């Protein structure tokens, strides 16, 4: 059975990886256009200053704005001053980025002029060299020297292209000043040296400030003023033949993040300036919108460099309305003609690109292609006509009109091409999508089949299942081979055939199993008989959840929807237990209502409260209240316009003065929650006597966890300090505390893995005194369990007492949870970490409900439990301050205990992953308790139902499972399969939705991120539950050793 | 939704009365929901939700109370003093108020906003109570054991009790289903929090009445046949 499970699980993981990679997106042909100088350059030199996350309203001067309350407003005063005093030398634009608004993608777009695809965004933070044609390469080809200062992403994109460079690490979001100060030190001296043609400077301070404090913080004002000063200094050293571009690569949201495509993130500012005249039209009140890709042709043409081959941008016409070589003053016609020339070059470059692209791939619509070609050629003819007219008649009014007309024609051509490219680059590989979906479906079916098989009480594996598994392995290998190595070919058909065959076969097998297989002994345990009320409701919840993936609004509001479903399920348990208990307590069914004597119905308040029904009700209320309370910590999606960010999610150091008192309160509240969390688990272990003795893991649980808590809260306190003080502190002080936490938690985990038994044997001599002690206290006694009766018979003369034997499995899990939850809450930060306590509460409450349910001697049905449990998991994914969108990933988690740049991306990646999937990890660790908790009989139940004390003597807890190792494995396997089924259904839903809606307007915003997050969360869940399985097996093994040791000594 | 057949045949009087009541209620409720849904009426549920809720509640309270007063007691009728009647009535009111609070809490737990639109949530709780709790309260009285018998043991007597069981379950189900259209992005004016749930609850009630009537007639015929043969 064990090997079987292992093989099965391994395969399952492979299957999912296959499907994750199945969506293949775009082709791009990159051919380099090696053309000569297209246009005489107006300028010889350029300074390009990228200010990361310079939102449009940071740069735009707002006259109506007098109030000082917004720190980011009106800080770039010098820009405004230039615009007013030298209107012909400077221009301001609203600079629209294409989503995704991450710096790397923006840089690619800014230098190549092409459009991004979603794959770029997900394959994010590793920068690799750009091989596509771009203006940096073009300039080098024209023999210009480039200098670079700032963000080292550029160095990754353009290694070895720069004559001199001063790269600075970019990943450390907490560090506001290193990059900027480094640039500032070198920028002016380098500009003075005159050995450059192009200088690129990339400032990161504004972006980091936004990530860390948000745009509303005073630090932002400081940073922007610094930028203002920098621009002033740069303009002082500029020559007449130099042009300056200042722009942001993207904006930022209200919380200072970016990555999505809301208006605030897309709108950046672009400012162009030169000491000599660049335009004939001064910037008016209405600011023009400019696409980000438009920068590439503009810069290229202004500097007299060919436009990069794959550019899709549209040269900014305003910048081509003045030419320094005009001797005889400028007229309107000249201006228009000049810009038409620029546009014509641009259009020709694009048409070349399309021609090339058309040859390589068939997805460009043919009729569109010809239509566009027609537009271009007609424009060309008109231009010829206009030229001859110009030569003949001189400059007339009519000609001007014609030229303006022409200009709009070219503009139309370019924008049309851009639009088409945008639509066709969202191209999908349908074959691999279908194969992926089919594979997931098959995996699901196999899971169901396995559960079915596991109800077989025979030990040997049936031959049909072996056949099925063999075929599946072959299929999987085949499918993987097909989707990764071969492109589109005929073999896809074979995969379909095999897959279809498998699906049909599995369905037949499952149905056959259900109907008339005499080998299924435990018929009543069969979870797929829908007659059961709970099962049907759970399945309904499952199906609803599955369906909710297909509607964008349900995905957007998923946190609320899941809350609704989870509450429904929890209350469903409550109702069913209440009904059952009422059925049991008053079996007299049909006696007439009036016969009941009134005297017996005295209202006894104590009886009322200790009644099991009330108990269930209280536990359920407790669970659902903690579920509801946790929604306070949920984050907002940008689609939900009427949602304001919870105060718990702001970083503590970010809260400004008016919230000072609140700051302290929140800090102490979080610390109290964390302490309570550890305290509760500690009390629990004490209660069951798992904290006695001196084995390593006990010591760890006893002392390390509180120390870790203290360190963690001190770390939070440090983070709460004002940023100024924090920045002045040496690095080791910031890093010290969290690192201690990491070490302690890791040591504890290792100890648990090494010696997972929290069991302690008392010699028999002390037994009597202990018992006396217990009787004196007569409070909740230490539950000491006698050893297995068999053992006891052997050692009758010398009975031993083992503490905590009854909870040997559970204790290991609880220990792990405690250690992990400290780590997780530190990663979460002080804001959302109280939600972990709530998670513990609701999980505990739910486990109690299960316990109560099984008290009524109902057979456990894992599918129902798992559905509810996983609903809670998804709920707490949202309620720990996450959303299934790219900008809501909390990157600051990577800087807990690490400061500065990372050499490799593994550690920060792991930390961010842990932060994002806190709920999955937490509930994954807790999930085996579904088996063990009812056996140990939860605290609450015991506390209330104290009467049955004599039963405690025979109470064995989850030790009972040790005696029956086979059952344990079977139960565990069934549980794991159920977890996998539910998560499989989820990912199946997400995949199908992503596939079905691949042409949907919102696909990149809603469905695709949902799918990616779902896949990640599934992997996390699978990994964690596998680890838990191994841990329990380890506990089992060590129990084995322990028992044999005990029996030897006695 | 099928209540198991009880072997007892209801009184002919009770049967006729219940059936008549059912059809009257169905008609009246359809009228009311028509009023609630027409655009230009004063109590249009979209523009004037609270008032609409109050109208429905008033209707339910008056109808249920009057029916319960006139409900023939059948064969097990016993004479009670007016004092006991008043006492029971007061107890019923207490239960009614408690159940309103409970429904309010449950709505909040299920995701209704806690601080905003408290009035709406409260009105929704009142409607829920009127549709789901008031009918059994009137039909079963405040006797706890009969509640257990009907709802926990699923053994209602044929007649008002079985109808009431179906009606209660369907009302709650309707309100539960009513929550689903709220998050959809159709941008309709009725997609605000309590409206769909209130409507769902009322609709569930109507469907429940209808099902109850059919169930009652069907089982009555069957039982009668059984008795005769």
Please describe what this structure looks like.
Chain B: It is a multi-pass membrane protein. Chain B: This is Phosphatidylinositol-glycan biosynthesis class F protein. The complex is a heterodimer of chains A (1050) and B (229). With 1050 residues, chain A is mainly alpha-helical. Chain A is built from 40 helices and eleven strands. Chain B is mostly helical. Chain B has seven helices and no strands. Chain B has helices spanning 12-37, 49-70, 82-109, 118-140, 144-152, 160-178, 193-228. Classes of the chains: A mainly alpha (1050), B mainly alpha (229). Chains A and B meet through helix 20, helix 21 and helix 23 of A and helix 3 and helix 5 of B.
Short synopsis of the structure:
By secondary structure, chain A is mainly alpha-helical.
Keywords:
heterodimer, A: 1050 residues, Alkaline Phosphatase, subunit A, 4 domains, 40 helices, 11 strands, 60% helix, globular, B: mainly alpha, 7 helices, 71% helix, disordered N terminus
Low-confidence regions of chain B: 1-6
Beta strand % of chain A: 5-15%
Largest sheet of chain B: none
Reading the helices and strands of chain B in chain order gives HHHHHHH
- Taken together, the total number of domains of chain B comes to 1
What portion of residues of chain A is helical?
55-70%
What value does the average pLDDT of chain A take?
69
Let me know the number of strands of chain B. Answer: 0
Radius of gyration of chain B: 18 Å
CA radius of gyration of chain A is 34 Å
Shape of chain A: globular
Q: What's the quaternary structure here? A: heterodimer
Beta-strand percent range of chain B: under 5%
Count of alpha and pi helical runs of chain A: 40
Keywords (chain B): Endoplasmic reticulum, GPI-anchor biosynthesis, Membrane, Transmembrane, Transmembrane helix
Subcellular location (chain B): Endoplasmic reticulum membrane
InterPro entries (chain B): GPI_biosynthesis_protein_Pig-F
Pfam families (chain B): PIG-F (PF06699)
